Amino acid sequence: MAIRCISIPLSPPDQAYQRNPISRCKASFPTMNRYWFAGEGKIRRNQLLLQAQLSAEREPFSGEAVSTASAEDVGILSIHHVGILCENLEKSLDFYQNLLGLKINEARPHDKLPYRGAWLWVGDEMVHLMELPNPDPLTGRPEHGGRDRHSCFAIRNVSKLKERFDKAGIKYTLSRSGRPAIFTRDPDGNALEFAQID
Questions:
Q1: For 18-34, how does the pLDDT look when each residue is reduced to its tens digit (9 = 90+)?
Q2: CA-based Rg of the chain, rounded to a whole angstrom?
Q3: 53 plus 122 within the same structural domain
Q4: Dist CA 141 CA 127 (whole Å)
Q5: Residue 123 needs a FRET pair 20 to 30 A away by CA distance; which of 145, 157, 193, 195 works?
Q6: CATH of the domain at 122
Q7: What is the arrangement of strands in the sheet containing 150-155, beginning at the earlier edge strand?
């Protein structure tokens, strides 16, 4: 798995960021401190630097990382992608691309699997839409997605998404805890949470 880094020089401020596999990052680790990781704080930046260092220390042919972690630690770093089943790929793409604004990851192999699908970027992670039969019942599910299996997306503004759902006629519920979060279901009944991260 390639670790992607996002690098933005502190000047000029209007320069766009680039998402690159770590093998293509031009910054070396001592100079990487001059870079700020988009939307992340100091702790997250340090986590990403550690991930990049661990990736760079991999044995070239074994695929194993050189680590000082205990023998029990398997080295889980983050969620790479979430697989979501859909009945109709085009209908799901309309929801995830046009309503939510996710972009397709063209680098992923859409045509190498025995079913139709699409990979969509969610920050540095992905959603994998898979056009396959859904074994889950569509009826009898909780009205509030927070009481069902769900995937949670971090967003900047719940109010804007609520307005978009209202305009599109999408049913939703708000977080029962009072925090800024909204729950809905995609066209196939998959529960989704959108939590506002300040």
A1: 444 444 444 333 333 33
A2: 19
A3: no
A4: 22
A5: 145
A6: 3.10.180.10
A7: 150-155, 191-196, 181-185, 172-174
